[in-house]
Amino acid sequence: MQAPLVTERDRKQSVAQENAILVKLLDPSIQYSDDPLEELDGLATTAGTTVVGKLTQRRDKPDPGSYLGKGKIEELTLCAEASEADVIIFDNELSPGQTRNLERETKRKVIDRTELILDIFATHAQTLESRLAVELAQLEYSLPRLKRMWSHLDRIKMGVGMRGPGEKQLEVDRRLVEKRIRDLKDDLDKVAKRREREVAARKESMTISLVGYTNAGKSTLMNSLTSAQVLSADMLFATLDTRTRRWRLPHWGPVLLSDTVGFIRDLPHRLIASFKATLEEANQADLLLHVADASNPEAEQQINAVNDVLAEIGINQKNTLLVLNKVDRIEDSGRLKQLQARYPYAVSVSAVSREGLDKLAIAVSDALSKSFSDVEIEAAVDNGKLVAYLAKNGEVVSKRYGNEKLFVHCRIPTAHLGRIENQNPDAVIRPYDYTSDTEESDTVGDVA
């Protein structure tokens, strides 16, 4: 039975519970995996659709009008009718005109990769911040596509010099959308400033941010390290909101560990811009833990995709430690050895079985210590100026008093030690001796 023409209402509803055909245009110069639509399949499943068919075509460049070739569109139409598909999802970004032409030919709703990701984000957004970011991204995506909403009025003819009702309504809607976009950006600016203040207020502790490809296991790793009990699921974009918990490191003490939204290849630029406030934790972090799914055949491509996004949002220069997660899922030991040879400074772990978490804790402590000195400073008990300087520029772990002397255990950027010596000639600076430490024991997974 032939499907009815697609209406804008059909297009705007969620793709959840719909049957979908997945389509991808392949570049002949690129070597793809066995299933080039595997990731799109995961996205479609996360969105709640049932995948009933897949179609690919190799072309040097897409058709400017319909993206696919004429013969492939006919094949796609027959496939959609045979499988009773409700929606066709492209793993490429389509122009408004291409989407309109494909819907006219196939008589099915057509969405591209960006619109599918926006649909998932809209479903998973829980906090006010993430909902604002998603709404902004959706409106910026739909703005150039508004003309299609009023195509049903195009048949109404007006006199010379008069514009049809569709064109008038389009201008009104465009103004309304543009105003809402401005309002959302203002709201997100306020959220970003509040987030900056919140992050700055926590600078008394070292901060570590988990970043990585979506479904790499960041939330599971956070739960294993801190018993945080944040949502972790085997799906793409299970987490959209930043969560921060305390993590006690051996020979270091408590640090703050944050989980952030996952990245993905070809992440829509409008989403990156919208979620900058959410990524403020990563921007202000002292160390990034780049979590990668070592069991994924495309692990290297995913690592590169995350690095590209980090560069785009301007935090690629951060001190970063690569974590190869899910090593328990790797059946071929040679595959793991290949990754470890490719990334010799990475730490191999399994967040589920807790394999390698002790080594990760040590590696994080070492990474944090590279630019910081963990020292004990002995000074006169009335040297309040020194104590204030240490609190402002470093982390004061503990203080003790004895024989008119003050002993301060602190972690401070090494660059400050010379200034402390110059301005406090009577002070004695020595590496902190943990063998006589009487502070709380340091165990991975302890919750503050």
Task: Describe the fold and architecture.
By secondary structure, this protein is of the alpha/beta class. Helices cover 40% and strands 20% of the residues. The protein has 15 helices and 14 strands. The protein has helices at 8-12, 38-47, 70-83, 96-106, 113-124, 128-142, 165-201, 218-226, 269-274, 280-284, 299-312, 333-342, 357-369, 384-393, 417-423; strands at residues 19-26, 50-58, 87-90, 109-111, 207-212, 243-249, 253-259, 287-293, 320-325, 347-348, 372-380, 395-402, 405-413, 428-431. It has a six-stranded mixed β-sheet with strand order 6-7-5-8-9-10, with helices on both faces. Helix 6 (128-142) runs antiparallel to helix 7. The chain is elongated. The N and C termini lie far apart (61 Å). Residues 150-166 and 438-448 have low confidence and may be disordered.
List the topology elements.
Layout (H helix, E strand, L loop, with lengths): L7 H5 L6 E8 L11 H10 L2 E9 L11 H14 L3 E4 L5 H11 L2 E3 L1 H12 L3 H15 L22 H37 L5 E6 L5 H9 L16 E7 L3 E7 L9 H6 L5 H5 L2 E7 L5 H14 L7 E6 L7 H10 L4 E2 L8 H13 L2 E9 L3 H10 L1 E8 L2 E9 L3 H7 L4 E4 L17
Parallel strand pairs: 1-2, 1-3, 3-4, 5-7, 5-8, 8-9, 9-10
Antiparallel strand pairs: 6-7, 11-13, 11-14, 12-13
Helix pairs in contact: 2-5, 5-6, 6-7
